[in-house]
## 1
Amino acid sequence: MTQQSPITYADAGVDVEAGDKAVDLMKESVRRATRPEVLGGLGGFAGMFDASALQGMRRPVLATSTDGVGTKVAIAQAMDTHDTIGQDLVGMVVDDIVVCGAEPLFMTDYIATGKVVPERIAAIVAGIAKGCELAGVALVGGETAEHPGLLDPHEYDVAGAATGVVEHDAVLGPDRVVAGDAVLAFASSGLHSNGYSLVRRVIAAAGWELDRHVDELGRTLGEELLEPTRIYTRALLDLVRSAEVDVHALSHVTGGGLAANLARVMPSGTLARVDRSTWTPPAIFSLVGRLGSVPQSDLERTLNMGIGFVAALPQGDADAAIARSRAAGIDAWVLGEVSDAGTATTAPDSEVVQGAKGVDGGAVQVVGEYA
């Protein structure tokens, strides 16, 4: 038998030293994404968070969420720009927690890549840390895994999970929503992190390059597609805790679009009618529709169309809520109203969505034409 040369871990494609360098490069970013309750530092087997403050709560309820950013990572990889995708990850995870009225406390991340390039990993984590800073969330740990042979050297994917807390009697949801409530919209920063499989297919079919300057966007196509997901955490928690606003329910407009996500927080026996004429979707949405001849119904079921969050609250609180949101830098407006079921119209382009993602609740109808 011919003697085989020794095979090392590095020969198999895993560079432990590169992983260690990546950790060194990300340390400063992670230090900024903290809270006073965090115990220990970077490098432990587990992130630790002092939960003694929960002892002062009457009935603390923990809320948790996990997510990724989908195929938006393909745009980051194609542009070799990696310091924004982490903010997308944070937004997709922590703002799901805010929907029930909970304050996100801490987050962990996971990065899988074909080859650890320390500078690239550090840039991804810097984006995650920035997102955590914006949300007031502690980044207490993470993992970077090198998967040679499974992923190409330039490829990676990111995922994360977060935990938050809310008083039991302050949990938001369908049980609080009543006929007569106003439906408020909170503007998105763009595509956020959903529908990129459709978007990428459209631009590929059109033959457009990411470095193409698009006048109606005011920048290159790639720059528009990498616009980070808006993080609503602080602004919405301020709204929920405000004495002048009684928020009944929140909905994060992600995969499935406006109607399907709003339907998830509508109680049985109600209908939320929202009016397209109350807003004009940003240019990227009409551009995708035009380039790919995408039917409006498909656009609306896939993309957020310029609305990243929705709230249901008493009509009399709408003006105060809008003012607080705009003061926080997020445009908001009255989108529609909640009524009793059975009041749906038969107008064209006004399909009724009943429940979504396993939730058998109320209904949503989008009517009118975009402004």
## 2
Amino acid sequence: MSIRVLFLGEIVGKPGIATVKSALRKLREDKKIDLVIANGEGATGGFGLGRAHSMQLFKLGIDILTGGEKIYYKKDMVEFIAKNPNILRPANYPQQNPGRGVKYLTVNEQKVCVINLLGNADFPRTHLGNSFALAQMLVDKAREDNQIVLIQYHASTTAEKSTMGYMLDGKASAVIGTHTKILSGDARILKHHTAFITDNGRCGSQTSVGGFSSSTEINKFITQIPVRSNECWDDLELVGVLVDVENDGKATAIETVRVQVESPAQQEENEHV
């Protein structure tokens, strides 16, 4: 029996949560999706994931939330992540850190292992274990028990993500890149039946700078004065990739998903027309 997995791009702020609220349940039903994995580390104001927002996203139909270098940005998540096995920090954080980076579950009677990893380049605040060596160890361990292995790789460089994809081709069913928040155009099935994409985009405003108001980000670059980024509500979309995996672990299809969503202001305007 096959499984269908939706990997949602990074959920950026309240606009990102609004896209999930508006579109996920119908998409899940229409596409007969068995498992939803989402990058949630930008859900709280674009910087981190708070406890309340994580619980809201689970209620909206997400099964597993992942995070990267911003996973501990919100104080209440530091404690809460240890209590909720469906929120994954990167597995290559120190072992004694709160939370876990691996999730074992059963989907359609298939054993599934979800692994979340953080890249080692361009994250100056983190000094983590080698993501490639750990990925090999964790994947080999999961495959001993005939697990379908799904990798979420939160990395800054395309080289890291491509290398991880090719290294795990034929071992993992999917290697899905996150972090840059731009849906890349390279979704494909690799030679040995692993689904791969460099980056599965973001949920939230698409005509923005990573989900934030362009005018604010422009001023920051011009003046070099740090100010708080402002969430943008323009051109909302639910974005991600849909992957089909057979019970032998081979991915048979990967497709990008983009669902346009009206902003609350648009909805109110249309109601008065």
## 3
Amino acid sequence: MELLGSLTILNTFTLAELEVGEHFLWKIGNYTVHGQVFIVSWIVIGVLLIASLAATRNVQTVPGGVQNFMEYALEFIRDLVKNQLGEKEYRPWVPFIGTLFLFIFVSNWGGALIPWKLIELPSGELAAPTNDINTTVALALLTSLAYFYAGFKKKGLGYFKKYIEPTPILLPIAVLEDFTKPLSLSFRLFGNILADELVVAVLVLLVPLFVPLPVMALGLFTSAIQALVFATLAGAYIHEALEGHGEEE
């Protein structure tokens, strides 16, 4: 009986240690990280840096090519941030929200357009960084730190009055809200990108010629929308921290 109980406990622990999916793991000191996420993230960052350098290397009065495209992207981001934060507050936050939008947009489209699975790794496979929950949680936590920083910088310790206004009874709800914001941001982005890639992969396996193409086109559209939603919500949270809880614009 004791032997049977020991085997049961051993099996329980073994099952608890199983992971879903394989990852290309790197050891950095005492930390284990997903190498495939770092590789594709560096590629995305490299693409953005190359595009930025190409657009600013020889600036023309009448823009064309990459310069015209990057100026259009900058104008789009500036309008997005201005609509969320208002004319007076938006300028310092254009780089942060713009970086979030561009990184997520290029990551999503890279995952949808580039056949990463053709590049073989010792374990795991390359995919969009936003296909990994660790990436989306990191982006959501950065957003949380940004709106805490915005509120604290503008109001000092008075920022924390929002947790007890209009009554201290709402304190638990206000604290819970700060936890649900990054959770909703991270799981929304992760869930949509993962679902899109899984649907395309299944359709390519079942009907490899024409059926997946409309789904892939729809995936590109939803990928762009997810980047826009994430950046818009980040701006809205920062605006809420700057203006106060429940204040009107």
